[in-house]
Amino acid sequence: FLVNINGTLLKGPEAKISVFDRGFLYGDSVYEATRTFNKRPFRIDQHIDRLFLSAEKISLEPTYSKEVILSEVLKTIEAAPFKDATIRIVLTRGTNSDLGLDPALSGPNNLVVFTKEIKPNPAWWITDGVSMIFFQKKIEASGSLPKTGNYQENILANREATSRGAYDSFMINTHGHVTEGTTSNAWVIKNNILFTPPLADGVLDGLTRKALLEMAKRQMLPLPLVEKSLTKDDFLSADECFITSTTRNVVPVTKIESHLIGNGKPGALTLKLLELYLEFVK
Ligand code: PLP
Questions:
Q1: CATH fold of 2-117
Q2: Is 183 in a helix, a strand, or coil?
Q3: Residue 89 Cβ contacting ligand 1 at under 6 Å
Q4: Residue ranges of the domains in the chain?
C-alpha cells in the first residue's frame, strides 16, 4: 500500500489518522473505489463527481476542491510502483475537537488516498462463477444511495454470505425488491433481455453499471437492457446472472441460495458482456 494523507505520501503501516477523526468515530465520511489500467485512473472524474454527490447527500461540505482531490490521486498513482492498482479515496468530515455529533466540532476534512496493486480476478470466477445468498435489509432506503463510511448493513450481509459458504449477498429492500450486492450492482438475463434494478430501489449509482447503460444506449450490447424492479423469483428463474464493480468488472453468478442459475455454468452472454465491457473501458 502507498497512502496519501492530506497530501503526505506514506507507506501503508506508517499511515495513521487521529482517533478523533469523525470517519473513525461515527462513519462520518464518504468514499470512492476505482482502479488504474496501466497507470491511468478509470473514469476518475466520474468517481470524484460521485464522491461530491455522496458528500452532498450527507451534508458534508468538502473543504477540498475536486481539482485538489484529482491532483492528490494523480500524485499517489505517479509515486506508486503499480501499473494496475486499486484506488480508494476517503473524505471524512474532519477531526473533532471533542466527542460529539455536532459537525461544528470538526476541523477541515481529512483526505486519504490508498493505492495497492490489483490482482487479476481469480480464474474460477470465470470458469465456475460465484454463489450468492439473499439478505433482507432492515433500513428503509429509497433513491440512489450515497457511498459513505457507514456500510454496517452491507458488512452484515457479506458476513452472513461468507458464514454460509457463499461469495456475497444480494440485498433485498423493505419493499421486497433485490437491490444490489454488498459492493456490486446486480444483473439478470431472461429471454435474451438484460435487467438491472433501478436506482430508486436503493441502489448505488455504480460506474460499471453506468458504463453498461452507456453501451446499451450506443447499441454496443448484443441484447436490450431494461431497468426494472426485480424480485427474488426474477433472480432464481434467470437464464444468467452476474454482478459488476469497478475493481472486478463483470463476475458471473451461477448459484443463488441452493438454486443453480441456468445450467450452473457462467452464461455465454455474461462472458460476452465481460469481453465487450473490457474493450469499451480500455
Ligand atoms: N453497490 C455498492 C453498494 C458498492 O459499494 C459498489 C462499489 O463499491 C457498487 C455497487 C459498484 O459500483 P462501481 O461499479 O462504481 O464500482
A1: D-amino Acid Aminotransferase; Chain A, domain 1 (3.30.470)
A2: coil
A3: no
A4: 2-117, 123-281
pTM of the model: 0.95
Atom nearest to 246 CA in ligand 1: 16
Q: 260 is written with which cell numbers?
A: 443453480
Domains 2-117 and 123-281 share a fold: no
Cα 100 to ligand 1 centre (Å): 30
In order along its 282 residues, the chain shows pLDDT tens digits of 999 999 999 999 999 999 999 999 999 999 999 999 999 999 999 999 999 999 999 999 999 999 999 999 999 999 999 999 999 999 999 999 999 999 999 999 999 999 999 999 999 999 999 999 999 999 887 788 899 999 999 999 999 999 999 999 999 999 999 999 999 999 999 999 999 999 999 999 999 999 999 999 999 999 999 999 999 999 999 999 999 999 999 999 999 999 999 999 999 999 999 999 999 988
Q: C-alpha grid cell for residue 12?
A: 501503508
CATH architecture classification, 123-281: Alpha-Beta Barrel (3.20)
Strand spans (E) along the chain: 2-5, 8-11, 29-37, 40-41, 85-92, 110-117, 130-136, 168-172, 185-190, 193-196, 225-227, 240-245, 249-256, 259-260
Q: How many whole angstroms from 154 Cα to the centroid of ligand 1?
A: 11
